[in-house]
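Sequence in, structure out.
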Amino acid sequence: MTYDLVIRSRRTVLPDGERPAAVAVRDGRIAAVASYDAALDADDAVELGDVALLPGLVDSHVHVNEPGRTEWEGFATATAAALAGGVTTIVDMPLNSLPPTVTVDALETKRAAAEGLCSVDVGFWGGAIPGNAGDLRDLHEAGVFGVKCFVSPSGVEEFPALDEAGMRAAMREIAAFGGLLIVHAEDPECLSEPAGPGYAEFLASRPPEAEGAAIAGVAGLSRETGCRVHIVHLSNARSLRMLRRWRSEGVRISAETCPHYLTLSAEEVPAGATEFKCCPPIRAAANQDGLWRGLARGVIGCVVSDHSPCVPELKEGGFDSAWGGISSLQLGLPVVWSAARRRGYGLADVVRWMAAGPAELVGLAAKGRIAAGRDADLVAFDPDRRFVVDPGMLRQRHPVTPYAGRELTGVVETVWLRGATDRPGRLLRREP
């Protein structure tokens, strides 16, 4: 039997851990995983040696912003950045584009805008806003991977937040068809306008209690309606105990965090450096330890980018007025790996958090693992090579990053999308 491609690595990260292996590919799928020295015939063979072989990462939290705000980011640039960072699948958020993805017509407009521009596979979230509960089943049936809502202002007027009654209505509808609701959880009653332009004032305006109160409300409604819910970009480690308790009581609630919450701290934010601004905010260094424990214990199931770019002019001014969003789609893997290895975690842990976990969240059975039958989305990753972040190397539309000048460990060398290094991305629909 002859395969299209065989890749061998002494550090292949498989579902049961890291070991030497040969991965055989046919017709874009992984056909076999064999021993490192197995005799396998192939049209093309790649020997990686001690360069690791990972499954392609899955980033389920990406704001592409096209159409409507393509000058912020677009499918061509966002997916080029993803590919360069070892991310072979992204799921696009429903807001910041015009129109927002809150109806099937808007979804089709977005799919049309993405067609032919994507370097990686791309799926889509739908959105829940006041008054569109009747559209949610249609969005689900049209192939979105779930529905996103806010409980506090989103930052764009065309995507307003849900109040308690609106969220209850959305959850009842989503529970009826077995869908997933993902929630930006900050209680507006706990938020305030920053008292000044500095980071300390911004941080004080969005306290940890805002997340805790909102998550408690979401969990209560999930228990009432039976709706499966997921908390996006968790920054507050104090909420993890509550999440564990609710799960033990049968509430269907999960959570993710982001590279910036795991690696950046409030203490290190330079004066006026609004490239560090995001919502919820980057918190104190001590908070990071709790997030890492949450990952290790499985309370947090995913690490995703929340790639949220804008034009550079919107990052001007102070922390009280600048756009809140961090762009890290290309850098997420080395950022997380650099910190994880210092804390004693291995590549298998990072793959679980950044590939298998997000794929499981959205139901992408063909993604996130190196196993027979899965898509041959594969990444050659040198886990020991170091580099310094130069914003000019970034493929995103605008080279604005809080990681500029930071030394990181881990370099993506080659990416195969469904077994090829030059294959275009596909537009994905939720699998029935």
